[in-house]
C-alpha cells in the first residue's frame, strides 16, 4: 500500500496543505465579513462571485492545461489563491471582495481539476480505491484543521489572512519540485445540458438542487454560525460535524444505490434531509452538542447526493459519452451553487439565520419529490439496468464563505466512471 502511494505522495501533500489553507480561508472570510457589519445580502453577493468563478473555471481551465501543462497551471492557480486572500486583507470593501472571491473560486476549481485528473491518470485498478479513499480523508482532515486555526488569531486584523496565503504558497513546493511523471493533457469535452436532461431528467434536476444546497451552505453556513451567537471555535466544530457526517455517509448511500433503483435512494435522502433540516430549526438555541449532532445528520445527505446523481446519469451512457455526461453534470451543479446563496441569502436577511434551513427543507422536499414522481412515470425495473458503480466523491469546497469542504464532482475533462457494458440511454 505504502509503495503504491509513492508516485502520488508529493501531490497528496500539496493537497493537504492546500486544504488547510482553504479551510482557514473558508471560515475567516465570513467571520471578518460579519465583524465588518455587512448584511447577509451583501455577503451573498460576495458568495455569488465565488460560485461564478468556480463554474467558469470548469470550462476555461482545461484550455490552459492544454496550452502549458498541469504543473504550470497549478502553480499559477495557487498563486492566485494567495494573492486573492492577501487582497482581501488589504482592501476591506465588499465590492472589491466580490472580485477577489471570484478569483478564489476560479483558482480552487482549477486546482481540483488538476489534482483529480492527475490522480485518475496515474492510479491503477489495483490501487484506485485505496488512493481515492486516502484522498477523501486528506481533504476532510485538511479542511477541518484549517477551520480550527481561526481561534488562534484575530480575524479582524491581517494575521490570519497572511497565514492563509503562506500556507497556500507552501502547498506549491511538493508538486512544483516533484520528479514524478506528469499527466497527459486532458481531452476536451462537449457540453450539451439539454441533451443530458432529455436522457436523464432526474439526474440533471437532482444535480442542480445538490448544487443549490451545497452552494447555500458553503457560502452562508459561516454566517449562520455567527448570527446564532456561536463562538469561532463552536462554529468551526459545527462546520466540521457537518463535514464528518457527509464523509461517513458516502459509502452507505453508495452501496444502497448499487443494490436498488438509485431513485429510491434519492427519495430516502430527500426525506432525511427534510427531517434533519426541520430538526436544525427546532434545536437552534439549544446545546452546542445537539447542534453538532443534527448538523452531522444534515451533512449525511447534503453532499453525497451529487455523487448519487452523477452515478445515475452514467448508468446508461455509452463508454464514449462518460466525459460528456460528467462535463454536463458539473456545469449543472455549478449553476446550482450560484443560485443557492442568491435564494437563501435574502431569505436569511428577511427572516433570520435559521431560515437557511427552511430553504434546505424546501430543496430536499423537491429533490425527493421529483425522484418519486419520476419513479411513478417509469417502472422500477427501468432504473436497475446497466448500472455503473457508485463512486464516493471527495468532500471539497464549491463555495467558501462558510465551510472548507464540498462535493467534488469529477472534472470536466476525464472519464468519471468506467463500465464494461455498452448500454443505451433511457430516460429516467
Whole-number average pLDDT? 79
Shape: globular
What class do helices, strands and sheet pairing give? mainly alpha
- Total strand segments: 0
Question: From N to C, what is the helix and strand string?
Answer: HHHHHHHHHHHHHHH
In quaternary terms, these chains amount to single chain
Helix content: over 70%
Low-confidence stretches: 380-385, 395-428
> β content, as a range?
under 5%
Rounded to the nearest angstrom, the distance between the terminal CA atoms is 40 Å
The helix count comes to: 15
Largest sheet: none
- What is the CA-based Rg, rounded? 20 Å
List keywords for this structure.
mainly alpha; 0% strand; 428 residues; disordered C terminus; 15 helices; 73% helix
Structure write-up:
The chain is an all-alpha fold and 428 residues long. It contains 15 helices and no strands. The longest helix is centred in the last third of the chain and has 30 residues.
Task: Provide a short characterization of the protein structure.
The chain is mostly helical.
Which helices and strands, and how do they pair?
Blueprint: H1 2-5, H2 9-35, H3 40-68, H4 70-90, H5 94-122, H6 128-147, H7 159-176, H8 193-199, H9 201-227, H10 232-259, H11 262-283, H12 288-302, H13 304-314, H14 322-351, H15 355-377
Helix pairs in contact: 2-6, 2-7, 2-9, 3-4, 3-5, 3-9, 3-14, 4-5, 4-7, 6-10, 8-9, 9-10, 9-13, 9-14, 9-15, 10-11, 10-12, 11-12, 11-13, 11-15, 13-14
Amino acid at each position: 500500500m505504502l509503495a503504491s502511494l509513492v508516485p502520488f505522495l508529493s501531490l497528496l501533500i500539496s493537497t493537504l496543505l492546500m486544504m488547510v489553507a482553504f479551510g482557514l480561508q473558508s471560515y475567516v472570510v465570513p467571520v471578518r465579513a460579519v465583524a465588518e457589519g455587512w448584511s447577509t445580502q451583501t455577503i451573498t453577493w460576495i458568495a455569488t462571485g465565488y460560485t461564478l468563478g468556480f463554474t467558469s473555471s470548469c470550462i476555461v481551465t482545461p484550455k490552459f492545461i492544454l496550452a502549458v501543462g498541469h504543473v504550470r497551471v497549478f502553480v499559477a492557480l495557487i498563486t492566485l489563491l494567495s494573492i486573492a486572500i492577501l487582497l482581501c486583507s488589504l482592501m476591506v470593501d465588499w465590492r472589491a471582495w466580490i472580485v477577489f472571491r471570484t478569483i478564489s473560486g476560479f483558482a480552487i476549481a482549477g486546482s481540483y481539476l488538476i489534482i483529480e485528473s492527475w490522480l485518475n491518470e496515474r492510479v491503477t485498478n489495483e490501487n484506485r480505491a485505496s488512493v481515492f479513499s486516502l484522498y477523501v480523508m486528506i481533504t476532510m482532515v485538511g479542511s477541518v484543521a484549517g477551520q480550527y486555526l481561526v481561534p488562534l488569531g484575530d480575524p479582524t486584523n491581517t494575521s490570519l489572512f497572511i497565514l492563509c496565503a503562506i500556507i497556500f504558497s507552501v502547498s506549491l513546493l511538493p508538486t512544483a519540485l516533484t520528479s514524478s511523471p506528469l499527466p497527459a493533457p486532458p481531452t476536451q469535452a462537449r457540453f450539451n445540458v439539454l441533451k443530458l436532461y432529455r436522457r436523464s431528467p432526474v439526474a440533471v434536476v437532482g444535480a442542480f438542487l445538490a448544487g443549490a444546497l451545497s452552494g447555500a451552505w458553503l457560502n452562508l453556513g459561516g454566517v449562520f454560525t455567527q448570527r446564532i451567537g456561536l463562538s469561532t471555535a463552536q462554529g468551526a466544530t459545527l462546520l466540521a460535524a457537518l463535514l464528518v457526517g457527509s464523509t461517513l455517509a458516502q459509502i452507505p448511500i453508495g452501496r444502497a444505490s448499487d443494490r436498488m433503483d438509485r431513485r429510491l435512494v434519492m427519495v430516502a435522502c430527500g426525506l432525511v434531509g427534510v427531517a434533519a433540516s426541520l430538526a436544525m430549526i427546532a434545536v437552534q438555541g439549544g446545546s452546542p452538542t445537539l447542534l453538532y449532532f443534527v448538523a452531522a445528520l444534515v451533512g449525511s445527505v447534503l453532499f453525497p447526493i451529487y455523487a448519487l446523481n452523477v452515478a445515475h446519469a452514467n448508468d446508461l451512457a455509452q463508454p464514449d459519452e462518460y466525459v460528456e455526461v460528467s462535463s454536463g453534470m458539473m456545469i449543472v451543479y455549478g449553476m446550482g451553487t450560484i443560485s443557492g446563496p442568491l435564494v437563501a441569502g435574502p431569505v436569511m436577511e428577511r427572516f433570520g439565520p435559521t431560515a437557511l434551513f427552511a430553504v434546505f427543507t424546501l430543496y430536499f422536499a423537491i429533490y425527493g419529490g421529483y425522484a418519486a414522481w419520476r419513479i411513478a412515470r417509469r417502472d422500477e425495473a427501468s432504473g436497475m439496468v446497466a448500472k455503473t458503480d457508485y463512486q464516493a466523491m471527495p468532500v471539497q469546497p464549491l463555495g467558501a464563505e462558510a465551510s472548507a469542504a464540498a462535493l467534488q464532482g469529477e472534472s470536466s475533462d476525464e472519464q468519471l466512471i468506467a463500465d464494461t457494458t455498452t448500454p443505451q440511454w433511457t430516460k429516467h
